[in-house]
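New to this. Help decode both lines:
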Amino acid sequence: VQLQEWGPGLLKPSQTLSLTCAVYGGSITTSYYYWSWIRQPPGKGLEWMGVIGYEGSTYYSPSLKSHTSISRDTSKNQFSLQLSSVTPEDTAVYYCARGGWGASGYEYDYWGQGTQVTVSS
């Protein structure tokens, strides 16, 4: 399985960030996998943003829920992230990842390479 994300590298404050993750070698509708967006601001740890499940359900980080949306296009085997009203604090490397329940608990087994997003006026 391979994941590849893309989107604009540079945005201005108040714009909407749109990222897409294409999945190769596996279907986003396969039970029981969950497809997440995770970001890492410079000098900080990973931050989970939200997830869309194999059945299409979505869950978001409470701190980002008000301006985050995750959707999918099953015909293209892709899922997307929209983050509205971005600020410089949204500058980060954004990753898409596949997660699921394994013997050791919930784990991420495949990640995209990450895409840098910078918010600056």
